[in-house]
């Protein structure tokens, strides 16, 4: 199995040293940057498997780094912040981050988040028994993890793809927030309802002709969501 490379971006040297030590002890390869501009340069050069990205940094903050990288890369991003405010978490997820961890955090919490993200990257949350799925102009090739709408490829992050896969494999069924969190993110995320809301919004923006009036992924008030097959 190829060794995973992680890029740490934080303006505190003590945090970088701590993260480097625990990650390398678990067999990860580690690179580091201390500001957003350097992070983008290193990211382009090394193409890491995952980014641990602090929010508050000089020259370019983590919000802007995340926004710029999501213009062309689907590499998983876990945001790090000393601010546990829900609005910051939602902003990070809206910008394309896959997860959000509040400082201070323990090593085991971080490793649990890494395992969950890499599990979604590998697509092992659910194994489809069918090779493809079609609904109207939406087509999914499960073997290639490729999604197209009206013949145009839609780029999804690993988490977006896993959420869409869970929906389409349960077409017509009402899926609760708890079910989606457990199946897509993992048992440690069962209280993170914001994750479902934000990622459903991201999917609608990419898949629905009119995201404000969704026809594919619809709300079931007080319960969760339902994926409806297009006519």
Please work out how many helical segments DSSP would assign.
Answer: 8
State the secondary-structure class.
Answer: alpha/beta
Q: Give the CA-CA distance, first to last residue.
A: 43 Å
Percentage of β-strand residues: 15-25%
Could you say which overall geometry the principal axes of the C-alpha atoms support? globular
Q: Helix-strand pattern, N to C?
A: EHEHEHEHEHEEEEHEHHEE
Radius of gyration: 18 Å
Instruction: Enumerate the spans where pLDDT stays under 50 for 5 or more consecutive residues.
Output: none
Q: Mean pLDDT, as a whole number?
A: 92
Quick one: how many beta strands? 12
- Helix proportion range: 40-55%
Strand order of the largest sheet: 2-1-3-4-5
Q: What is the oligomer described by this structure?
A: single chain
What is the makeup of the main sheet?
A: 5 strands, parallel
Molecular structure report:
With 231 residues, this protein is α/β, with parallel strands linked by helices. The chain is 40% helix and 22% strand. It has eight helices and twelve strands. Strands 2-1-3-4-5 form a five-stranded parallel beta sheet, with helices on both faces. A hairpin with a 4-residue loop joins strand 7 (138-141) and strand 8 (146-149). Helix 6 (158-168) crosses helix 8. It is globular.
């Amino acid at each position: 199995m190829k060794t995973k490379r992680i890029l740490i971006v934080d303006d505190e040297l003590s945090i970088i040293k701590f993260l480097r030590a625990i990650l390398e002890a678990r067999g990860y390869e580690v690179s580091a940057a201390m500001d957003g501009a350097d992070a983008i340069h290193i990211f382009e050069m090394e193409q890491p498997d995952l980014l641990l990205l602090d929010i508050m940094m000089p020259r370019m903050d983590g919000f802007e780094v995340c926004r710029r990288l999501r213009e062309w890369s689907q590499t998983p991003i876990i945001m790090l912040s000393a601010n546990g405010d829900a609005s910051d978490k939602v902003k990070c997820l809206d910008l394309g981050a896959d997860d959000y961890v509040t400082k201070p955090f323990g090593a085991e919490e971080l490793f649990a988040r890494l395992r969950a993200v890499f599990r979604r990257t590998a697509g092992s949350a659910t194994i489809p028994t069918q090779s493809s799925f079609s609904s109207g102009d939406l087509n999914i090739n499960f073997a290639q993890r490729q999604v197209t709408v009206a013949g145009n490829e839609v780029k999804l992050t690993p988490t977006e793809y896993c959420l869409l896969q869970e929906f389409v494999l349960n077409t017509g069924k009402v899926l609760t927030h708890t079910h989606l969190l457990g199946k897509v993110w993992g048992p440690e995320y069962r209280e993170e309802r914001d994750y479902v809301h934000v990622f459903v919004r991201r999917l609608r923006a990419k898949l629905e002709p009119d995201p404000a009036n969704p026809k594919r992924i619809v709300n079931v008030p007080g319960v969760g969501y339902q994926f409806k097959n297009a006519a």
